[in-house]
C-alpha cells in the first residue's frame, strides 16, 4: 500500500521540506498536486502571517489558502488564550503577529507600563534591547511569558542566523522565567493542525529532526523525514530516540512509494552490524541506493542498546559508493 493511502492528512513543514528560500524543493509541487488527502502547512516561522505564507506557496505553484497554514505565532496565541482569555498583551514580533493578537481579541501594547497580562515573543529581525527590556519589565511585574518557538538558529541563504530562541534567552536570563513555547518540537501545533482538519491519522512531514520530527513524535503521530533540508544521513544515524522518524524518504515523491519500503529495514542487499564503536556496512548491488543503505543501517543502530556508533565502515564496493553520497 502506498504511504499516501495510509493517512487522512499531511502536516507539512515548509523550509527544507516544501521550499528552500524562494524556490520550491524539486518535485514538491508535482508531488503535492497529486495529493488525495488534506494538507496543512505547519511552520515555526512566526514572522509571516498565514495569508503571506499561503501567497508565497501559491506563487510557487502549490495550492494553499490562509486556512491551510498554521504558524507558531498562531499556536502561541491559542496557548495564551487557554490560560488568559483577554487583556493587554505585550508583543515582541512582526506586525503580522500583532495583527493576529488583535484578531484574537487582545489589546496589543508595546510598553510594560500599560499593564500587560502576558508577553508573546516571536521572531522579528528588528527586535532589539528596548523591546527585550520592556518584556523583562512586564514579566517582573507578573505578566505570563509565551514564545512562538525556541529555535536557536534561523536558516537563511547566507547561513545560520540568530533565531527566536536565542532572543528569548536574553529575556530568560534577565527574568529567570522560561516561557511556554507553542512551536516545534512541542506538540501543540500538530494537535491544532489535526483538529482543524478533523484528522484522526495524520502524518507529520519535515526535514529537521530536532523540531519537525521530534514535534510530530511528541504529538503521538507517525513522522516522515525527507532528505531535502537540514538533517542528513549521518544526523539520522546519531538521532536520539525522540527524534527518530517512523519513515525516511528521499523527497516528497515518496508519498507514493510503498509504506513498508520507507521504514528502517534491510534493503538493497545490504547488511549492517555494530562492531565496537562502528557500524560495518556490507553487501549491496551496483544498483543499490544511498537510501537503501541508510534504512539498513538505521534498523541496526536504532535497535542497538549500547552507545550510538560513531562511524560507518564500508566493506564492499557498493557500500563505499553509496556512503560517498551521504551528508
TrEMBL record:
Q: What residue ranges carry the coiled-coil annotation?
A: none
Molecular function (GO) terms for this protein are: phosphatase activity
Q: Does the keyword Hydrolase apply?
A: yes
UniProt-listed Pfam families: Hydrolase_6, Hydrolase_like
Gene3D superfamilies membership: HAD superfamily/HAD-like
Listed GO CC annotations: cytoplasm
Keywords, alphabetical: Hydrolase
Specify the superkingdom. Answer: Bacteria
Q: Which NCBIfam families match?
A: HAD-SF-IIA (TIGR01460)
Please give the name of this protein: HAD hydrolase, family IIA
Organism this protein belongs to? Corynebacterium pyruviciproducens ATCC BAA-1742
